[in-house]
């Protein structure tokens, strides 16, 4: 007598794909659906029970319902030249009326009452494009988290300051900015005076005094810039100090 055709619908129907790397547990999902008008018992079996964990591996499906079966492949040393010979079988059985002993039904079931479907296992490694995409996604996630954390820290520090402290910081910033501007004006005036003196003295090209004056003028600019940078660092130090306190 011919075996009954599988009543359950399987998704996927023929293959269970596991995508590596296989240094950790890899899980794929098998969906079983009962389109019939009766309850159906099911079991999920494998030819390599030590390599897989299946949850649930058995149960009952009411009419028109589905169940997601998680198939977890345990970590192993993957050899791309070795083809997988692992297979799974979904076995099903129409549930008798007014019977609750599912294990007893399986034991007493006749071979012609059983329905089964077989699936083979396929192991895949991610392509280079997928690896790059995963790395980029991780970088984007990490950058977004860092920006969010920095923004939260700044908001927390700002909220810790009262209005009087904020006012003091702003006044200190204005005073230091005015000091920077004063130094710039003095530097500009020094350059103009030095240039005037040089034009009046009209030194001969290549004379030592002319070279010394030129070096003096060149050194004026960096000195003032250093002062300006020092003042800016002082401003930042005051602001950071206030935020920390």
Any idea of the CATH class of the largest domain?
Mainly Beta
Calculate the terminal CA-CA distance, rounded to whole Å: 87 Å
Number of separate helices: 4
- Biggest pleated-sheet summary: 5 strands, mixed
Number of strands: 9
The rounded Rg comes to 40 Å
Q: Could you walk me through the main structural features you see in this protein, from its secondary elements to its overall organization?
A:
The chain is an alpha+beta fold and 245 residues long. It folds into two domains: 9-126, Sandwich (Immunoglobulin-like); 154-244, no CATH class. It is 47% helix and 23% strand. It is built from four helices and nine strands; from the N terminus they run E-E-E-E-E-E-E-E-H-E-H-H-H. Helix 3 runs antiparallel to helix 4 (208-244). The radius of gyration is 40 Å and the shape is rod-shaped. Pfam families: Motile_Sperm. One of its GO terms (cellular component) is endoplasmic reticulum membrane. Residues 141-153 have a biased composition (Low complexity). Keywords: Acetylation, Coiled coil, Endoplasmic reticulum, Isopeptide bond, Membrane, Phosphoprotein, Transmembrane, Transmembrane helix, Ubl conjugation, Unfolded protein response. This is Vesicle-associated membrane protein-associated protein B-like.
């Amino acid at each position: 007598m011919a075996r009954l055709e599988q009543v359950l619908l399987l998704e996927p129907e023929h293959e269970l794909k596991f995508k590596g790397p296989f240094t950790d547990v890899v899980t794929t999902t098998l969906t079983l659906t009962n389109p019939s008008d009766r309850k159906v018992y099911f079991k999920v079996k494998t030819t390599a029970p030590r390599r897989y964990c299946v949850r649930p591996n058995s149960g009952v499906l009411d009419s028109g319902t589905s169940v997601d079966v998680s198939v977890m492949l345990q970590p192993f040393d993957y050899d791309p030249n070795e083809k997988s010979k692992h297979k799974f079988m979904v076995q099903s059985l129409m549930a008798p009326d007014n019977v609750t002993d599912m294990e007893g039904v399986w034991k007493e079931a006749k071979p012609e009452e059983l329905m089964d479907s077989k699936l083979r296992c396929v192991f895949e490694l991610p392509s280079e494009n997928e690896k790059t995409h995963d790395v980029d996604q991780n970088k984007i996630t990490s950058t977004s988290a860092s920006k969010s954390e920095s923004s939260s820290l700044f908001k927390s520090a700002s909220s810790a300051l009262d209005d009087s402290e904020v006012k003091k910081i702003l006044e200190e910033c204005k005073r230091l900015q005015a000091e920077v501007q004063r130094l710039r004006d003095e530097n500009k005036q020094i350059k103009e005076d030095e240039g005037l003196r040089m034009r009046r003295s009209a030194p001969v090209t290549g004379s030592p005094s002319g070279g010394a004056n030129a070096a003096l003028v060149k050194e004026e600019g960096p000195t003032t810039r250093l002062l300006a940078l020092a003042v800016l660092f002082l401003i930042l130090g005051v602001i950071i100090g206030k935020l920390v306190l």
